């Protein structure tokens, strides 16, 4: 009998620990939130990520009856902010406003102190943003097929402006080269504004600005718009075809914005935040606000968001390796 009792000691102890953890988690979730929340943004005030964090945060505060503080921790392509949240307590009070740019970092940096999949609990996607393929008016290409034909006829002669390794223009150009089997030259600039300015000045042949940046340039005739990079046409440019429609079926390079919490955050808290973000983002008011910024409101479940991140990490890593880019 003693042997039997001893054999039951460890299983019973394990069950006790699990029950204690579950009860603690449930208690935390039931009292949540008991204090203000912080949303950490890895980009400066006025950026797309900052805009979304503040718009969603304001409305989240109303539902939770707690202040939601947006904190900008800029630097190292957003990895400083990501590291702060990865190390935060998994209690639902510190969240990360993340963008698709984060999925490029593992392929660019060999010593990241966190893993996007291991160290975070996805809450929900919030918005999708698309880019526009534009060429300088002097480039003899009226559509994507003509641009590809031009690149094939003159390998390595055409160039494009980007905002650096792992940026959306860099990844869009990498996918274009991969799918069209062409070779073009990257000309990196300090930021997206400088790369678009270079296309306007004719310093580069083409670029991939955001829709809001492209619209005034297109209307003034300073650039020629060929296509959008998303898998469906953009609401602000319904007359402009996608690259997928224009000769490269399946082409899709967009940016996205969403919320993450530290791994280990109670499921009840994740479910609460997901339900509120979905409710907030899918109001007509938010859809209109996002649309004016060239963004499309889009939400999903934590599981769907986790799958999106996993797929994006795989595709982006493959694209970056094909270019040989590295930041360290």
Helix content: 40-55%
Separation of the first and last Cα atoms: 63 Å
What is the beta-strand fraction? 15-25%
User: Can you identify the CATH superfamily of the largest domain?
Assistant: Bordetella uptake gene, domain 1
Shape: globular
The CATH first-level class of the largest domain comes to Alpha Beta
Unreliably modeled segments = 13-22
Main β-sheet, spatial strand arrangement: 2-1-3-10-4-11
CATH architecture label of the largest domain: 3-Layer(aba) Sandwich
Overall structural class, as computed from helix and strand content, comes to: alpha/beta
**Radius of gyration, in angstroms, nearest whole number:** 23 Å
What's the order of the H and E elements?
A: HEHEHEHEEHEHEHEHEEHHEH
Oligomer: single chain
Number of helices: 11
On the 0 to 100 scale, the average pLDDT is: 91
Largest sheet: 6 strands, mixed
Instruction: Kindly report the CATH topology of the largest domain.
Output: D-Maltodextrin-Binding Protein, domain 2
Number of DSSP E strands: 11
Number of domains: 2
């Amino acid at each position: 009998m003693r042997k039997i009792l001893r054999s039951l000691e460890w299983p019973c102890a394990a069950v006790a620990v699990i029950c204690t953890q579950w009860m603690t988690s449930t208690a935390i979730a039931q009292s949540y939130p008991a204090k203000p929340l912080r949303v950490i943004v890895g980009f400066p005030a006025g950026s797309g990520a900052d805009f979304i964090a503040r718009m969603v945060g304001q409305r989240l505060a109303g539902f939770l009856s707690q202040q939601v503080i947006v904190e900008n921790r800029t630097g190292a392509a957003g990895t400083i902010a990501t590291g702060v949240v990865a190390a935060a307590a998994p209690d639902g009070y510190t969240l990360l406003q993340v963008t698709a740019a984060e999925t490029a970092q593992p392929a660019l940096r060999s010593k990241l102190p966190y893993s996007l999949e291991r160290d975070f609990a996805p809450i929900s996607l919030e918005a999708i943003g698309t880019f526009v393929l534009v060429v300088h008016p002097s480039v003899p290409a009226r559509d994507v097929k003509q641009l590809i034909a031009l690149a094939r006829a003159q390998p390595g002669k055409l160039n494009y402006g980007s905002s650096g390794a792992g940026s959306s223009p860099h990844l869009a150009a990498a996918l274009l080269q991969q799918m069209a089997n062409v070779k073009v030259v990257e000309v990196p600039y300090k930021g997206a504004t400088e790369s678009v300015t270079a296309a306007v000045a004719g310093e580069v042949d083409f670029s991939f600005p955001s829709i809001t940046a492209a619209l005034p340039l297109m209307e003034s005739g300073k650039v020629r718009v060929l296509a959008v990079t998303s898998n469906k046409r953009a609401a602000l440019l319904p007359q402009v075809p996608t690259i997928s429609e224009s000769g490269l079926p399946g082409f899709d390079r967009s940016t996205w914005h969403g919320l993450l919490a530290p791994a280990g955050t109670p499921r009840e808290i994740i479910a609460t935040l997901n339900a509120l973000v979905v409710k907030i983002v899918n109001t007509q008011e938010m859809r209109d606000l996002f649309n004016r910024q060239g963004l499309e409101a889009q939400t999903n479940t934590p599981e769907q968001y986790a799958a999106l991140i996993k797929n994006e990490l795989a595709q982006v890593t493959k694209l970056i390796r094909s270019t040989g880019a590295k930041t360290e």
